[in-house]
Design brief:
Blueprint (H helix, E strand, L loop, with lengths): L1 H16 L13 H9 L7 H14 E3 L5 H4 L13 E8 L10 H14 L7 E6 L4 H7 L5 E7 L12 E6 L7 H9 L19 H4 L3 H13 L2 H28 L13
Helix pairs in contact: 1-3, 1-5, 3-5, 5-7, 6-9
């Protein structure tokens, strides 16, 4: 039991140690020696840390689907206008088709950050969308990997009016992202440097959401995404041929009447 607890705390300890410089006796710098020692350690030794972070993430991160996201992404019943909006950090990830197999490092960093957030009483709620298995939801939100949505869910006012929901879209670098960078989105409010989500597809305040058709639009976009690219080529070819045939037909009819296309009938001499 002690060993398991230690493993679960290792991701947080390793992240905090990134900024620390190991010092020896009389202020001697032992960092080069630590780096050499780490080089001789087998890579398999890091797997328990990754496993521990994944375990914590599984308990603290809410998977969002096309069926549950509207129910889950609502202000907490205990929230008040004085406490401010509910905060959600949602990872938008995917697999081989939607992320081209490049989201592995992103998800490892996310799991490690979830382990750190587990010990932070000010941490936001954590959510996860897999665009590989939730393609309709990603179409509804018009989003894709790899990104983090930092959502501020407002508490309804006393008159039950609902203020606007602010969504910051933080794009992630799939090759360089770290747990520290993800944690600082919340702790250092780096999300404020990211653009806000606006437009028709805004999940809460967009035009489609207000008319209640955002999910239907998501299904349509998802269906179009299933069509192979050559289908559109055939459709464009079919439409263009119809247009040309009609135009040629009008030209032939005009020539038979002895007048230019679109012109008035020839005057009697």
């Amino acid at each position: 039991m002690r060993f398991t607890t230690t493993l679960l705390l290792l991701p947080a300890a390793l992240t905090l140690a990134q900024d620390q410089k190991p010092m020896g006796f009389f202020g001697m710098d032992f960092e080069p020696y630590f780096e050499k020692a780490k080089a001789y350690l087998p890579a398999a030794l890091s797997s328990p840390v990754t496993t521990g972070a994944s375990t914590i993430a599984a308990k603290n991160v809410v998977p969002l689907t096309n069926d549950n996201w509207k129910t889950i992404l609502t202000p907490s019943p205990s929230a008040t206008t004085a406490s401010g909006p509910d905060k959600w950090m949602i990872l938008i990830s995917g697999g081989n088709k939607t992320c081209f197999g490049k989201c592995g490092d992103v998800e490892r960093a996310w799991n490690e950050s979830a382990a750190i957030f587990a010990a932070d009483p000010t941490a936001p709620n954590l959510g996860y969308i897999d665009c590989e298995s939730q393609a309709i939801l990603c179409s509804t939100w018009l989003t894709g990997p790899a990104a983090i949505y930092y959502i501020l869910l407002p508490v309804p006012a006393a008159d039950q009016s609902k203020p606007a929901t602010t969504i910051y879209t933080v794009t992630l670098n799939t090759t360089t992202v770290t747990a520290k960078e993800i944690v600082e989105i919340h702790t250092k409010k780096t999300y404020e440097q990211a653009p806000t989500y606006e437009g028709l597809f805004h999940p809460f305040d967009g035009t489609f959401a207000k008319f209640g058709i955002n999910v239907a639009v998501g299904y349509i976009l998802w269906a179009f995404g299933l069509l192979p690219s050559w289908t559109f080529m055939i459709l464009i070819s079919f439409v263009s041929r119809n247009i040309m045939n009609r135009r040629i037909g009008r030209q032939d009819a005009a020539a038979a009447q002895g007048r230019p296309v679109g012109g008035a009938p020839a005057a009697n001499q």
